[in-house]
Amino acid sequence: MRIFLTGGSGFAGGAILRRLVGDGHTVHALARSATAADAITSAGGLPVSGDLSDLVEPGGRPAWQQILGEVDAVVHSAAFMAFWGSDQVFVDRNLLPARALYQAAVDARVKRFVLVSAASVSTGANHDPTVDEDSGTGKANIAYSRVKLRTEQELLALPHGNTSLVVIRPPFLWGQGMTHTLQGFIDSVEAGRFSWIDGGRHMVDFCHVDNLAHSITLALDHGDHGLVCYVTDGSPRPAREFFTPLLATRGVDVSAAGSVPRAVAAPLATLMQAAAKARRSATAPPLTPWIISFMGRDRVYDITRARVRLGYRPVITVEEGLRQMAQSAQRKEAA
């Protein structure tokens, strides 16, 4: 299969690229820079010089758009991710490019469009300990997630012609090569701000990047237009039991970290966020309602639909993923 991929030089997109190439597909991956092109080439992909923003410009028909007429499928994994910022920032950087790419793919009669969304579309107003695709999403408590949901909804509402759209919703992505999200935890520990909420007993759910990549390969061939699936490692566990060994792969010890009751942390997070917004802070405060939702509330994603409709089964366990990360860190130290 010939595939056009966005985000191929990033953490999630890179894993998707390596899996697709490993499965024998020809992957054309959008590259915004020479560095991105080198990363794509190293992974076996064919770099396509350009930027998604090219499509959003008035009358924008970039030269690279012609590749859409030559591929069987588009996998859109590129996204600007941050835990702070206005909805408009994410509309401009995520929604508008995604919508333009989808419309271009439909116009080019691409057979399949796989959108990587986020399980956090339901993190916020929805307090259910377990959710599935039929659960109400409520209103997410960060702009990134609100706009992710809006992107899903707008794409699904557009005429799709011969193009089938499948949406994949992974929660917290982790694995070898992760940087941004894990670094946030590390910075918090090093600054002396890290504490568990309720002793880290609340259930969290997550998705190894290789399991996400596996779900993408399945979505290329399975599922009707409009299918939306949560995808996880199928192994939720208390926050302390997941993040303690995860951070240990980076030499960070949180086994003796303190704890704050949710009853104290939640109102404090609300006040800190309100104060930060009032002064138009460019960065998030140390504690936010999103952190409370993630670490201070039970949340498991039911992946029955992915198992039934995609034939999905996790291909890597939590233990194997942690072992790989630990070995990678050891090799870097020895080098």
TrEMBL record:
One of its GO terms (cellular component) is cytoplasm. Signal peptide: none annotated. It holds the Pfam family Epimerase. Residues 3-225 form the NAD-dependent epimerase/dehydratase domain. It comes from the Bacteria. One of its GO terms (molecular function) is aldehyde dehydrogenase (NAD+) activity. This is Nucleoside-diphosphate-sugar epimerase. It comes from Paractinoplanes brasiliensis.
